[in-house]
């Protein structure tokens, strides 16, 4: 869901700065289209390391 939403945000508001916007969209595409074997550890690592920063950036944009 996050990757799909980020893709839409990029199309509608391309000037909004979210530090990992392209990486989020790319990961969504790999997962949804199954380009590679999906490694659960990589997905979980991305969630644990990057989701808190994304949340902070979104909170800042909403303020």
UniProtKB/TrEMBL annotation:
Keyword hit for Phosphoprotein: yes
Gene Ontology molecular function, alphabetical: hydrolase activity; nucleotide binding; RNA nuclease activity
Keywords: Hydrolase, Nuclease, Nucleotide-binding, Phosphoprotein, Toxin-antitoxin system
Pfam families, per database record: HepT-like
The species this protein was found in: Candidatus Electrothrix communis
Protein name: DUF86 domain-containing protein
GO cellular component: toxin-antitoxin complex
InterPro entries given in the database record: HepT-like (IPR008201), HepT-like_sf (IPR037038), HepT_RNase_toxin (IPR051813)
Family according to the record: Belongs to the HepT RNase toxin family.
